[in-house]
């Protein structure tokens, strides 16, 4: 009788084992490309997104990048499913034919970027940049800040000497005096103010909305509306907490970024580049302005329609 019971229970145990293996094999992986200065770092630390996606059959693989352009390169190569960036990298990516769809936008944070000069620099206004060396990261959001600044002063890129440098290299050049001015965003902006007593060049303030944009591969967006909704909801929840308590956010980020608390407190105190919602008419219009400006300056080869690459959630 004992042997018969064992024989009867063996198929049941085997079936349970097969079911478990099947469930595990059905689990998918969401690959997220993020930058340390972005909202995804907060989300990753909280672990909330993992908890929300597990019942939907997804694990998360986090992949870190230094700036927006490499995130988009990874998306183009099929190495990630979702990423985030500032405004300009997405326009250059669209111009190059990189397949992506905007899935979300953050709040605007126009005070978090500017053109900086040394504290004792003779340069006072944007017009004074004529003939000077101005550093910025090529293809970054600061590229658009420089474009807007030049237009505002009736100058062109031919009137300055552009120096294309990543933020860390830009900081070194700024502190060594090998450039005359530097266009950059927080927390590099705040670091220059605190460590080098840099000042904002008059007229370079609030030249862009400085939003964060979230994007996905078109094939992923088409099949995973629930995943996208969950990602945006968690980003919003995390972002609202960050905005409500900037000092706590700064205290968390400082050791993660290897940055002084004073710098992060200044940066987070003016940063609103959090939360996430589907692109609205304002966000699309702002991105269209970036595209139109770059076309006018000859930085992209043809006109773009931003609305053509905006994900349309199912109603």
Describe the 3D structure.
With 315 residues, the protein is α/β, with parallel strands linked by helices. The protein is 48% helix and 16% strand. It has helices spanning 2-26, 39-46, 48-53, 68-76, 87-95, 141-152, 167-176, 188-196, 218-223, 225-244, 246-257, 261-270, 281-296; strands at 28-35, 58-65, 82-85, 101-105, 113-117, 133-136, 161-164, 181-185, 199-200, 213-216. It has a five-stranded mixed beta sheet, sandwiched between helices. Strands 3-10-4 form a three-stranded antiparallel beta sheet. The relative contact order is 0.17.
Explain briefly what this protein structure is.
The chain contains 13 helices and ten strands. It is an alpha/beta fold and 315 residues long. It folds into two domains: 27-109 and 210-309, Periplasmic binding protein-like II (D-Maltodextrin-Binding Protein, domain 2); 110-200, 3-Layer(aba) Sandwich (D-Maltodextrin-Binding Protein, domain 2).
List keywords for this structure.
single chain; 315 residues; alpha/beta; D-Maltodextrin-Binding Protein, domain 2; 2 domains; 5-stranded mixed beta sheet; 3-stranded antiparallel beta sheet; 13 helices; 10 strands; disordered N terminus
List the helices and strands and how they pair.
Blueprint lengths: L1 H25 L1 E8 L3 H8 L1 H6 L4 E8 L2 H9 L5 E4 L1 H9 L5 E5 L7 E5 L15 E4 L4 H12 L8 E4 L2 H10 L4 E5 L2 H9 L2 E2 L12 E4 L1 H6 L1 H20 L1 H12 L3 H10 L10 H16 L19
Parallel strand pairs: 1-2, 6-7, 6-8
Antiparallel strand pairs: 3-10, 4-10, 5-8, 5-9
